[in-house]
Design brief:
Length: 120
């Protein structure tokens, strides 16, 4: 169960998996996760588990990526949308907005509206 895995700490390889999925630099991923770049680099080289906080952030962005992929129909479209600046988010990217769990919920709601063709 994901909740149990997050509580135990996701394996450090989850960072590499997310980096590949989002197709971004380590610096951009560090920013999206709110983790200092040097810390991210150390974690990626480690076999230790991520902290609870880091695990929650990785799970959040992974969840949003898969939701965007499902909604938009492809990985490239999901990546592009997560880096875009929809008007509904006030000029911020979905990745920036999802820096907090409440922000991630807003992004999920926006994807739900897109999926159902509700734009206002």
């Amino acid at each position: 169960m994901l909740a149990t895995e997050v509580h135990r700490g996701l394996p450090a390889r989850a960072l590499s998996d997310l980096l590949v999925k989002l197709d971004m630099s380590q610096a951009a991923l560090a920013t999206a996760l709110g983790i200092p770049e040097r810390t991210l680099h150390r974690r990626m080289k480690s076999v230790a588990r991520l902290t609870l906080s880091e695990s929650e952030r990785v799970a959040r962005l992974t969840r949003l990526f898969y939701l965007a992929e499902h909604t938009l129909g492809s990985e490239p479209r999901a990546r592009a949308w997560l880096e875009s600046k929809p008007k509904a988010l006030g000029g911020r990217t979905p990745l920036e907005f999802a820096a907090t769990e409440p922000g991630a919920r807003v992004v999920e709601q926006l994807l739900g509206r897109l999926e159902h063709g509700v734009f206002s």
